[in-house]
Design brief:
Elements lengths: L1 H36 L16 H17 L2 H14 L25 H8 L2 H16 L17 E3 H17 L3 H18 E2 L4 E2 L2 E3 L19 H14 L10 H14 L26 H17 L7 H15 E3 L5 E3 L2 E2 L14 H5 L3 E2 L3 H15 L4
Antiparallel strand pairs: 1-4, 2-3, 5-6, 7-8
Helix pairs in contact: 1-13, 2-3, 2-13, 4-5, 6-7, 6-8, 7-9, 8-10, 10-11, 10-13, 11-13
Length: about 400
């Protein structure tokens, strides 16, 4: 009887230890796996050249978070070396073309706040100012929404909200420029207005104001499907923007409302393993598959929203279920002890050449690969948000 009681006690303590500590430990282990695969930050997301790419920005943001949580300066150094190589003393950014008016370029600017704060090097402030200058002149829809890129005229994409709005909000809060907090709120609000689908509680990947794209519904301008990662970008953007929007700002409660509504809708599309699918609302359709980046992004956003008090603590179970599904189903342990995150959609978009029509067939046939930073970055950050549940 005594041995049985001891076994039960040890089992309970082991479960408690997992909840208290192992999420963070697992996040560190995965971050170390990424650094083993990609010894320099420009190599993240299978990079082949120095580039101020949005995917490297996602990965570097995750590495900075690991460094803060573990007090290990090597993570900061890993990111700072990348930024130092890319940014000249006058703030010019290697291969950055402001005249392309591409919101993707803005995302990596998020990592410069911490590097500037820690180093005091003015070139990082100058680089951030250059990104803001792009946004001052960025082309817009008639009601003020940023085009996703100059080549995608009249179009708002969910992806672009993640790329630019948290950066604008942080810039405004950091440098006492409240007009950029206002702009961040404005872009989030306009994207919600034009892409939200009330019947499903989900968001269309994009909206074409002109209704001229082949993918655009001629009446609404909506793209035809609910691509998981695009909604993941938007969900993460909401919770990240709120870090820098004052609670008495007119848009604060509105964005919290968007978080709550989306948090209430997404469990209907989560499978029994805790995963979400490439095309979110039809998991049983032939060819669809559980996809790593959308699951990791939702895991992060749910966990952070709970920690910040935006949604009820009961939603932590959704994030924990997602983590468990990723760990059991989509993560594999390699012979060298590193971890690999599988079934990551490499890329997704609309229009272009060859033309991407936004159909179900388009999304399920995009390339799948391992250790895509759009999945691994949110996963690492999500692990630390899960660990924070119990602090």
């Amino acid at each position: 009887m005594r041995k049985c009681t001891l076994f039960i006690l040890v089992s309970l303590l082991c479960g408690f230890a997992w909840a208290q500590e192992d999420y963070a430990a697992y996040g560190v282990r995965f971050a170390e796996s990424e650094r083993a695969r990609f010894p320099e930050a420009w190599q993240l997301d299978h990079g082949t050249r120095y580039y101020f790419g949005y995917a490297q920005g996602v990965g570097c943001k995750a590495m900075l978070e690991v460094g803060k949580q573990t007090a290990d300066d090597t993570y900061f150094d890993y990111v700072a070396q990348w930024a130092d190589t890319l940014i000249a003393d006058d703030g010019t950014i290697h291969l950055y073309s402001p005249e392309a008016y591409n919101l993707d370029f803005i995302n990596s600017g998020k990592v410069l706040f911490e590097i500037y704060k820690k180093t005091g090097d003015a070139k990082y402030r100058k680089a951030m100012d250059r990104l803001i200058r792009q946004l001052k002149n960025h082309p817009r829809t008639c009601d003020g929404g940023y085009w996703h890129k100059l080549i995608y005229q009249h179009q708002m994409w969910l992806d672009g909200i993640y790329m630019a709005s948290p950066f604008m909000a942080q810039y405004g809060a950091t440098f006492s420029k409240p007009e950029w907090i206002d702009e961040a709120v404005n872009q989030v609000t306009l994207c919600h207005k034009h892409t939200f689908d009330a019947s499903t509680g989900l968001y269309h990947h994009a909206w074409d104001e002109s209704r001229t794209q082949r993918w655009a519904d001629p009446e609404t301008g909506h793209s035809p499907n609910f691509w998981g990662r695009s909604i993941g970008w938007y969900f993460m953007a909401l919770v990240d923007c709120l870090d820098f929007i004052p609670s008495d700002h007119p848009g604060y409660q509105r964005i919290v409302g968007y978080v709550r509504d989306l948090a209430g809708s997404l469990p209907h599309y989560q499978d029994n393993d805790g995963l979400w699918y490439q095309v979110l609302d039809c998991p049983e359709r032939e060819g669809n598959y559980p996809e790593a980046s959308v699951t990791a992004q939702f895991m992060y956003a749910y966990a952070k929203a709970v920690n910040k008090g935006y949604i009820d603590p009961s939603f932590r179970q959704i994030a924990e279920k997602a983590f468990d599904g990723l760990r059991r189903v989509l993560i594999k342990e390699n012979e060298d002890g590193t971890l690999t995150l599988t079934r990551c959609c490499a890329v997704g978009g609309l229009g272009g050449n060859p033309y991407r029509d936004g159909s179900f067939e388009y999304y399920i046939n995009e390339k799948i690969r391992d250790n895509d930073t759009k999945a691994t970055g949110p996963f690492i950050m999500g692990c630390f948000q899960l660990a924070a549940f119990h602090k």
